[in-house]
UniProtKB/TrEMBL annotation:
Pfam families: 7tm_7. GO terms for biological process: sensory perception of taste; signal transduction. Belongs to the insect chemoreceptor superfamily. Gustatory receptor (GR) family. It comes from Lasius platythorax. InterPro entries: 7TM_chemorcpt. One of its GO terms (cellular component) is axon. The chain crosses the membrane at residues 35-53, 128-149, 155-178, 241-260, 266-286, 347-365. Gustatory receptor which mediates acceptance or avoidance behavior, depending on its substrates. This is Gustatory receptor. It comes from the Eukaryota. It is found in: Cell membrane.
Length: 366
């Protein structure tokens, strides 16, 4: 996973948000105590940053006594710290799930090596562009904030932007990992579709000899590797996703309130609208990548029923194909967050529906 983004994993090791699996190919045992030290130091740094990084406005002074604004300001002040501290601690507590997922994904890559190759150069460019876009986006927000509030202390908004970038990098790592799973499921589906002669939009680079050697047992083994890796990633990220979604919703609600009540600074309102857009894109990104990954994983069931190779025409292989296809349809892959809800496109629509309701109610009160 993250084939060409190891520097991001390495950097995240020092700010405590990743279970120090740097080289997925290495068999070196991990020092849990070292990770614990990194995590505790990172949590202390985040708490100190949250204490000194105040919000854009002050609703808690005597001259501007807005009860709801004061409460939201205090939530926003410590919310940036909360999701990074929880991410760090949960990452440490569940790092074994991540290592199991990486090991299983590595097994899939070893098995898949003789069947088809992936376009890693394109993936590397996309990852670099996403990371660069995150840096440029939040730095631009910091510059605009400084213009909107010239009296604001430099280190205050610098801490805010650094913590926002750090969290967005966590979202990016999650996106890269599930995108890697998506591409592997897609390659497996492309390999299976190659058997039917169907036109596919991915270069599988499979020889006729390899196609003829493919059997249902091979497909099941490859698919089980990816499914197990996805389930381990789900187990690792599930509590973190609940934390991320909750904190992002709190941030969105806070900034909507500020936009509705902060009427004396047009540039600041524009900045806060941009931040709202960034949070919305992050919610859409994690929902979308989970949705397409599960769709690719569950699409293999329909593809298996269409296979017409000589190997599958035998009665025993035909029965195996039917059983495997039915199994995939009865037990579809889903990214479930702490057993509460599925992370897919419907969640994003539900979230924005709740936000729209909040905006209407807040506007009517205002």
């Amino acid at each position: 996973m993250l084939e060409h983004c190891r520097w991001l994993l390495y950097a995240s090791r020092f700010y405590g948000c990743h279970p120090h699996t740097i080289d997925e190919r290495s068999r070196v045992s991990v020092n849990s105590r070292l990770l614990l030290i990194y995590s505790l130091v990172a949590c202390g740094v985040y708490c100190a940053a949250a204490y000194y990084a105040k919000g854009f406005s002050n609703y808690c002074d005597a001259a501007n006594n807005v009860m709801m604004g004061c409460a939201l300001q205090r939530i926003n002040r410590y919310n940036r710290c909360l999701y990074m501290v929880l991410t760090t601690l949960l990452s440490y507590l569940r790092h074994t799930e991540f290592e199991r997922a990486v090991a299983i994904a590595r097994k899939f890559d070893d098995l898949m090596h003789n069947w088809c190759a992936d376009n890693r150069r394109t993936n590397r460019c996309i990852q670099w562009l996403i990371i660069l876009a995150i840096l440029v986006a939040w730095i631009s927000v910091g510059v605009l904030t400084k213009f909107a509030l010239p009296q604001m202390i430099l280190y205050t908004f610098a801490l805010q932007i650094i913590m926002r970038i750090t969290f967005s990098m966590e979202i990016a790592k999650f996106y890269f990992l599930y995108d890697a799973l998506y591409r592997r499921f897609r390659r497996l589906n492309g390999l299976c579709r190659k058997l039917t002669g169907m036109t596919i939009g991915i270069d599988t680079d499979v020889s006729v000899t390899h196609v003829n050697r493919l059997t249902i047992s091979n497909l099941q083994r490859l698919h089980c590797c990816l499914t197990d890796a996805t389930n381990h990633f789900n187990s690792y990220y599930s509590p973190q996703l609940l934390c991320w979604i909750t904190c992002m919703l709190l941030d969105i609600i806070t900034y909507i309130f500020v936009v509705l009540y902060e009427l004396n600074n047009t540039l600041l309102i524009c900045v806060e609208c941009i931040i709202l857009l960034y949070f919305s894109l992050q919610v859409i990104a994690i929902s979308r990548i989970c949705n397409v990954t599960c769709d690719q994983a569950n699409a293999l069931a329909g593809t298996i029923f269409l296979t017409k190779t000589l190997a599958f025409k035998h009665i025993e292989f035909s029965i195996e194909a039917i059983e495997l296809g039915v199994c995939f349809q009865v037990y579809p892959l889903r990214v479930r967050v702490c057993g509460l809800f599925n992370l897919d496109n419907r969640l994003a629509f539900s979230v924005f529906g709740v936000i729209l309701t909040y905006v209407v109610l807040a506007s009517s009160v205002h």
